[in-house]
Structures are given as structure tokens and as C-alpha cells.
Q: What sequence folds into this?
């Protein structure tokens, strides 16, 4: 924390701020400038909320300095984390050299639908299957997912096609079931700061795919991962899925620059969801290529064999032929970066 | 829903879109314009997701028309909802003519702290006391609230000072306890789209204070209220607490214009939280006056007798003397609008 | 500027950053913390761009500290600036105790229209008349204003009704004419960072009403005023008119909190434009009351006697009867703050 | 335009809205739905501002339908526009199959600096050189560019290295000079809605590089291009350079999804500026790759041989070695898309 004093702050005001800092068990470092004095503070390990100094007489501003996260930080662990997902057809790595493809429908609608799509997902070469059994929907009157029967269908997909399963837990109740059936537990954007759910999933033994909240800053995103890791689950996969801005031609604005930003600060892998990130089918391929080109560790994409009959998100789902095209293009771009699809 | 065709769309493409609409059990109304044709759709009661039409050949755009909410809508219930909160010192109305004041600390820290503040809150004339026992914090290492002992302190405040209690439930577990102790159950901004919690609180018999999410549109905000009402709890109080924008001199941007916007579309009362809405003590009074002047049905304000020793949010808490000043000013502005503080 | 070193930065890296700072003629103040070292910099008067230090090995982040503005700053001039606008019916003050009302149509359309509205504006008690002769329009095919004939109509309004004239200059060419006819020169939101226009208007002898850009931060807004003042024109009136956010139920999000924020940092007066700030007629009155309640020094409001025939912005123009209601309400709220309408 | 009536609107109110529409010379098409009636409007060619219907009794909302742009629209011209820039070493195409590289310093600082960088830009294989002689700066106290002497240095770079010159005009005065020296005239983000400058550049005979404004919607961006084309200059090159959002780890949020969105609606080429788009050197390469992967027609990149001595934007300038790396990577990604660097 740095306290910037007003230009006209008196010696006494400066001293008084320093004394308050010292009284909190911290160390104050006044830096007299030509225009004004700033006071650096050291010794704070996060326990003291220093914002209040801003209300003291003569103080112009308080500027936070230290980043609050620890376990997610590259300063604590320099090498990239590689999350290993066991599937019936062998381990799939997320992070590191390989690029992971997760594909499947927004929601599991029926065994027929799930199998039809899984068959095409497998044929396209992806090894992880996504599909929601519990769907957070803006309206209480929209399709809310099949619940546990949906999870059972996913278990059949797993067995039949050898695909690893990625599916969302919406609350503590669904988490218990999801943990039983899934290979990767997804926490959705709307739950990124559902701290009880984060703590609970921190006790799970399975990897967690954590989506960025709609208006989460990078620090908030990393702090949400910190919540999970602080409980002991270190297998966290971050996922950018677009943020909310004034821009109105896409459902969300995909923030591609977060990829190098995460890589600089954290050792965790980061995926991109170009389906929610754009909300429009014809933008999924270009943005998938862009994400991999920028250094993403993989993609999670919505695919539907009959998107105009989908019960949710049909507008942003690609068809299986497009998935094959996508895989081909992404593979070629991965090669440019000396990476490969796994 | 309105489907706008491209300028060059052929007759056949238009016919094909109409047929698809009719095949979904809806009615298509083509409107041939000078440049292009638009197709109105009627008969949709929310069950059909029409976005997929956007992918059909010849379609330029799909524009949603009907608002998806029902129970929250003023079209369904024209007169203002007045939520009645029973307190030891009589009923407090939220909505209608009176303006409600809710004041208290961000978090309950100890009996001494809660009592010291409650005494001043009561003296200032407010009849509802706020204070968190469960605190959603960005960092897992920050103070997370006292839990049930905090609720017990609130119960004592209730009894001793005759104040009604407003406190937050963070998850299903805390909800059970909060429901037991609180007069109004608060759902925080980060949980505005925690749909399981919304459904659960929809079964409670106590009024719910629902805070707007950090980047929630008006429709999403009203739909979150719809979730609660759809389960049978009609006593919902909305609360604007600032949204996330590029603007960096406040913690959030308080969206005062949502007050008349809500009034136009919904019968539910709406409060404003100027403390989170600005994040700075010296902005709380001006924005409190502004909120009431714009037609808010009340305020929820953070007060602390020793803000620079607060365990959370000290920077945005006003001191008891400021609360008295605030009450005085707000009372005078309420009078201009022929309203009074209750 | 504060340079924050990485946790693992070596002594040599720290020394090397300090040397670079000193080589630029500045002073480095290393502050060794428990986790990492920060380096304060003093002696920089804005000439040196220090962002480049961020690329040095071992540096985690550079944090700007000093505010870059001078003449607009309250640190340089403590008392409020009062801008005096001479009108045929005597001086009107903007800033200080009185609250200024500027009202009139979006665009001057004809002598009849201007006179009809001016008559009602005067009767309502406002002393300044707004009306555009040059209109910045998103589309090249929209009505662009009458140009100089519009200014001549404004001159007639001035003479006939004794109202001071506020009108916009869009470029250097129109500025020469506007300066001749107007009492206050308006610089629109889209031109807030048209630096040549700002410099040019800095040489004018008439007061300038500077509107905040659609996505301008507070610092950028104040720096735009600094451009004008740096050229010698100290009579700058700031104006909040809504910013662009994700929020979609208003045309812009009116950022009421900027009023106390400006008051804290600058001595310049600040008005609010609730017409552009909301884009909807029925929100103009509530937001006008809110602005004055929050401490605004006045309002600039669009009024039209036949808004549904207006050539521009009819949707956000109030009718003369609403203006009278607005004046009445605003006067009552001003009284609560010990202020009066002038 | 579509007018949506309230659920309770009476037959008479609906008739009254239809009559008003017809009185404006347009045609009304009422569509009675199960819940409410909507009224389609045809025959409007942009001259009538229909927003005012929203204030009529019984009206719930007005929804704009037609896109307002014409000349920029792909509906008017289906094939891609290819802008041909003549340089001393032959024509460079922007748009179409080839990908264009524009590189150079933020500002021309001296002949030595410009030559040193141009030498490396040429060696890296780029054929267009960027460099500002007029710099729009947030602060009046920052370096504002060399002016005409800077243009003369650019002319020497042109002659000596055979590179085409891209440089910014800030106002009508500088435009006259820039037009004389430049091969492509740049209009900066802050001037995207400086409509007089757009009209003026519409009369120039040289291609225009139009940067997206900091908070411009896609429609506003295309309308700004429409302003230029409406005056007769059809050689417009669009350029995404990041938009302003809440996201704080980059200077701007690069909106990569605008590339396919522009391609769908317009025939104009679109470049990306990853330097301003991110504001950080280490993000320039990843985002350059992403832009080309998403289908951008080229890049405009800031390069400096001594970025830590740059007079502006040093923090986001890459060094010449990084430019070579960038060219190599971009070339490989272009090949994946069957494109090549020109």
C-alpha cells in the first residue's frame, strides 16, 4: 500500500498518518517528493484493511501495491501446472505443451442427442466431452437441465466413447452428484464468486474448470482460484468466456489478452470458451483460432448436431462438420507455436 | 421476436423462415419493407428459443421483443407492492409513500461493536439494522464473518433496540440460520444469479432484499426477482448497489437511472446502497440524497463508530454523526416529493 | 511513480532499476518489504514517461502516483471557481451558491420553433438558452443543423428574451462563428479529446462548457479542461452527460458520483445533462432532482414544445410544462442544500 | 422500427399510434400477439426520427430495426474492397488475400530515430511505415509531435527505404500537410466521431485508416466510415485498437470478435493495432497472432529501437528483433488461412 499525501499536507498530518500505520504493527516509509509526500507501507500480510487511511486528514489517495493471491501465483510456483484428467482412453493433460479440446452440447437433452454428438466429437478427435445436466438459466421458465438422469447419460457417453466428462455443478447439492460422475467439475461464470461453492469444490479430488465471471477483473478471477486451492485442490483450470462490455454485436466480449496476462502471473492453465465468448455460431471458428494463436491451453466448444432444435444456446453451437474444420485449423495453428492437440 | 431478413433475401428464403416459425407452433407475420422484409412472430410464451433462426440463410438479425418476466411486471400488477417488515417496535413498510432507512455495520464484529452502532442507528431514527454474519470476500484470507454467533448478536440487537434485522445469506446452509434470525433476508450482488439460492429463498416466509449483480442488466435483475416470486415469495425488495464500468474514481458506478426504470416496469420497491455504490465515505451523503431525489424507496447504508478499525469496508462506512446528517437531509428531500421517512 | 519489483528480484536487478531512474535525472527511493521491494520515484515533473521501467528485468509493475493536472486542481486554487456569464438581463453565475438552469431544444430548427421554446424557457424562470446550430450526428444522412442561420436565430432569441446563449462549436470553422454569437461555447462529448479544438477554445474570451466524453475517466476529463486552461481561458464549466456502459435501458449511464469526485479534486463548477444522460423523457425529471441533490452546480436540459416533431433527440426532450415542474422541484431541493436557482 | 405496445394498451391507443405513423408518410403494420400488439413500420429512409413514438400513451418500447449504413454495407457491395497503396517499391494491397504489415515508432522523434527504425522495419519485411508527426496526448504538457518537420523526415524515410507512409492527421490544418506527405492518412480513435474531419478526409484522394473510437459500437464505427465514403473517398481501411471496459490489466480490451463481425456486414478491410490494443509490450506478439488467426487483413504495430528512451508509448513498443519474430509467426499463421504477407 502506498499513501499519497495532498500537496498541502502539513508535517503534522504526515506524521500522524505514519503513527497510525505503525500503531497497526506495520512500517511506514515516507518519501518526500517535490510536490507532495508519499508513504510506503511494508509488513502487511493481508490482515489489515488499510483503505481507511484514505479518510485521514491530508491524505489524497491510497494505492494498493501487493497482489493478494499466493497459491495461484507464478512467484510461488514457477513452472506451468499440468492438470491430468484420467479418461477411459488414457490420461489427457491440460496445460503444458498439448492443447486440450473439450466439445459437446450446451445441455444434455436425451441419450440419443448426447450419443449422436459424442460420436461426432470423438470422430473429430476431441477426447473430452462437455454437456450440462444442471443449467443456470436467466429465466425460471427456461429448460433447467435433466439433473441426475443427465449425469447418467454422461456416464454412458464416457463408457461408450471413452471420452472424459466435463460438466457443471451449480450448488452444493449438485456438486455431490457431479463429483461422482464427472472427470472435470465445471464452475460457471455466475458462480465464480459463490465462495461457499468454491470452498466446497476445493475439497473435491477432481480437477475444476473455473470460468471467469462476467465482470471479473483478473485479480478477482485469480482470487477465486485461490479460494479453491486454499482448500487443498490444486488442479484448477481457468477459462475465459467473454466479459460484459458496452459492445453489442456479440453476447460477450472475448478478452483474448487475458491469456498472456494469466501466463505472466500464474502457473495455472487457461482455456477459452468461444461459444459463450461470442454467442454467435459464425464467430466460433475465427475466435477459436485466435485463442490458440494467443497461447490458450485449449478450447471448450458447444457442438450440436441439430442446433436449431437445441433446448438452449442453439444460436452459438457449431455443427459437427464445423467442429472437424475447427480441429483442423486449430491443429495447424498449434503447430506454428510448436504445440499439438491432445 | 422479430426476424429481419437481408436486403437481398429471396422470396424462397423468406418463405422458408416463415415455415420454420409455423413448424414451431408459432405464427409468422411477414412485413415487406422498401429495403428488406421483417417477420413478426406471435404465440411464443417463452418455451421456444428462437435465436436459432438467426442462422438461417437470408436472415440478417433476430430482435427479441417481449420481456420475459411476468410476476415482477407492472403489467401484471399495476399498484406498487408494499413489503411489510414486522419489528419489535411495530411494522416498517418498504415501498409506497414512506422511505425506509436501513443502517448498520458492514459486518458484525462483536457485541460491543454492534450495540454501539445500533444505539446510534436507533437514535438517528432508523428502524432497520443491517450487519453481516456471513461475508462474501474476494480473498479467502480476509475476515469471513462471525457466522451464527454473529446472528445471535443481531438477535440481541433486535430485542434490545427494537430494530428489525437485515442480514445476508450466502448459501443454503446459512440461509436456514438467517431465516431464523432475520426480519429481511439479504441476497448479495455476487449471488444475484445463484439460481438455487434464489429458488430456496423463494420458499422462505420472510421478505428478501435482492441486490443487483455487478454487471446485471435490468432484465436480468428483474428475472432474478422472478425466480424468487415464481416459488411463492412475493415480498421482494430490489436494491441498486452500483455496477462495474470503466470508471475508476469510485468502486462501482451507481446507476441512479435504474430507479425510474424499475418503477416503470415493475411494482416492486427499490432501495439504493450508496456505500457499496461508491466505495468512498465522502460520496455516501451526496449519493444518498440523489437516490431519494430520484425516487428510491429507501437506503441501506454502512455505518461504523470506528471506521478505521472496521474489519471490512471501513473506507465506505460513515460515522454515526454523518448518519444523523444524512437522515436530516434525506428527510427534507423526501418532503419535496411528498414522502416521509418511516 | 512507484515501481514494484517481483518477489524474486535480485539485489542487482533492484540496483539496476534505481540506476536507470537516477540516469533520468530523478531520485529513487527503494522500500524493502517482507515479500518484495518497491521503489518510489520523486522529482518527475511529467516530462519523463516512466512506463518503460515496466519492461526491465525483475519489475512486476509500475504504478502512477501523481495526478497529472495542475490548473484545474483544487490543490492549486482552493476556492470554487464562479464563471460569470453576461446576458442582456444581467450576469448569471455558474458555480458558487446559485444553481444554473440551461434549457432549450436539441437543435435550432426555425425561428418559430426557437421563439416558441424560448418564451416558455423564460417563463419557467431559466436564464440561459441552449440550442444547436451545428449538430454532430452519428449518421451523415441525419439533420446536421442550420449552421450560421441557426446562430442568427439564437442572436434574436438573446435580444428578444434576454436569455444568455449556450451553443456548440464542432470544429475550428464553426468556433469562429459560435464565439461571435454565443455567451457560452459548448464543446461536445465527441470532441472532449479533440485537442486542437480545445487549444483553440482556450484562446477564446468566452466561457466554455466542456462535456465529458462517452468513456472518459475523471482524469481524462480534467486533463481536457487543463488543455483549455493552459491556453489562458480559465472559465471552464464541466458537464457530466452519461457514460457508456453495458447497461442497456438508458442511452447512457449518468455517473452522478462524479459530482462529489470533481468537487474534491477541482475548483471548477460541474453541471449535469439529464437529457443525454438518460435518453428518455420520463427519466429527465428524476435524474435532474438527483443531480442537484448530489451537489451539481446546474442543469442543461433539452426542451421542445412539440417533441414528436423534433428533428433530433425528440425522445429525450421534455415539454415546457415538464420544465416548469422540473424547475419547481429543483428549486425545492436546492433549498434543502441552502442553494437557490439563479 | 418496431413499436411494442403495452399489454394493456387499448384498441384506441393502438389506432392512435398507427395514425401518427401514417401521418409521417410511413406505413404501419399492426401485429396482434397473444400478450400484446407490436406495430411494424416501413417506408422510413432515415429522415424521420421515430423514437418519439415511445412517449405515446400505451407504447412500451420502440425497437430500431434497419441498419443505418449504406455505402459501407456488404448488402450494397458484395465483394471485398481491396485498397491499393502506391509506394516507391510498388503497390501494397490492403484487403483481399494478402496481409499488410505497418510498423514504426509511435512518434517521429528525429531523423536518426526514424531511420534506425525504418531500416529494421524494412529488413523485417514490412512495406508500410507508421510514425506520428502530430500526436494527440491526454496531457497538454506531454510531447505533441514534431509537426511538419516530422512529416519531412517521413518523406525521407519513404525515399530512402521505399516504404509507404502511414501517419495521423489530427485536424483540418494538419490534414492538408499530412495529405501531401502520407500514402495513407490515419484518423485516430479520439477523432472517430470528429465529423468535420471525417467529411474533410472524404474529399482527399488518398486512402484513410480509420481507428475505432474507444467506446464506439460496431454501428457507430461503420457510420464513421460511411461519413468518409459519402463524400467520395471509398478507400477506407478500418482498424480495431481496443475498447474501454472495466478490465484493468490491459490499457484497452482488444475486441477481436469485431473482425468476423465487420466481415459479415461490410466489404471494407480491417486491421488490428495490438500495441494500443493492449498497451503492454509482452502482449503484442500473442495478440498479433490472434488477430491474424481471426481473419484480420493486417496489423499496425509500434516498434522502437530504444523503447525505454521513447518520447511516447515506450511501454507498448516492441523492439526490432521482436518485430522479426512477429513477422515470422504471423506469416506462418497466415499460411494456415491460405493467406500471405505482402
A:
Amino acid at each position: 500500500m502506498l499513501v499519497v499525501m495532498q500537496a498541502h499536507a502539513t508535517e503534522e498530518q504526515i506524521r500522524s498518518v505514519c503513527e497510525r500505520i505503525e500503531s497497526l504493527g506495520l512500517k511506514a516509509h515516507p518519501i518526500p517528493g517535490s510536490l507532495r509526500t508519499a508513504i510506503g507501507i511494508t509488513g502487511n500480510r493481508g490482515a489489515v484493511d488499510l483503505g481507511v487511511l484514505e479518510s485521514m486528514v491530508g491524505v489524497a489517495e491510497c494505492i494498493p501495491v501487493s497482489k493478494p493471491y499466493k497459491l495461484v501465483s507464478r512467484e510461488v510456483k514457477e513452472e506451468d501446472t499440468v492438470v491430468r484428467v484420467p479418461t477411459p482412453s488414457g490420461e489427457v493433460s491440460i496445460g503444458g505443451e498439448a492443447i486440450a479440446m473439450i466439445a459437446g452440447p450446451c445441455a444434455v437433452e436425451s441419450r440419443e442427442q448426447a450419443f449422436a454428438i459424442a460420436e461426432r466429437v470423438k470422430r473429430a478427435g476431441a477426447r473430452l466431452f462437455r454437456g450440462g445436466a444442471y443449467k443456470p438459466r436467466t429465466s425460471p421458465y427456461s429448460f433447467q437441465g435433466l439433473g441426475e438422469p443427465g449425469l447418467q447419460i454422461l456416464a454412458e457417453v464416457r463408457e461408450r466413447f471413452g471420452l472424459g466428462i466435463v460438466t457443471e455443478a451449480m450448488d452444493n447439492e449438485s456438486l455431490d452428484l457431479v463429483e461422482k460422475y464427472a472427470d472435470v467439475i465445471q464452475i460457471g461464470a455466475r458462480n465464480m464468486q459463490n465462495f461457499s461453492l468454491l470452498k466446497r469444490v476445493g475439497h473435491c479430488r477432481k480437477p475444476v474448470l473455473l470460468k471467469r465471471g462476467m465482470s471479473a477483473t483478473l485479480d478477482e478471477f485469480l482470487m477465486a482460484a485461490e479460494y479453491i486451492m486454499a482448500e487443498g485442490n490444486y488442479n484448477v483450470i481457468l477459462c475465459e468466456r467473454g466479459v460484459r462490455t458496452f459492445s453489442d454485436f456479440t453476447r460477450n466480449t472475448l478478452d483474448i489478452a487475458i491469456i498472456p496476462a494469466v501466463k505472466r502471473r500464474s502457473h495455472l492453465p487457461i482455456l477459452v470458451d468461444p461459444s459463450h465468448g461470442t454467442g454467435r455460431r459464425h464467430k466460433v471458428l475465427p475466435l477459436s483460432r485466435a485463442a490458440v494463436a494467443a497461447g490458450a491451453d485449449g478450447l471448450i466448444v458447444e457442438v450440436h448436431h441439430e442446433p436449431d432444435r437445441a433446448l438452449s444456446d442453439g444460436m452459438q453451437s457449431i455443427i459437427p462438420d464445423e467442429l472437424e474444420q475447427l480441429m483442423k485449423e486449430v491443429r495447424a495453428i498449434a503447430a506454428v507455436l510448436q504445440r499439438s492437440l491432445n
Notes: The two ends of chain A are 44 Å apart (CA to CA). The longest helix of chain A spans residues 320-336. The interface with chain C takes residues 2, 4, 6-8, 29, 31-36, 38, 40, 42-43, 45, 60, 63, 65-66, 75, 215, 244-246, 248 of chain A (CB under 8 Å).
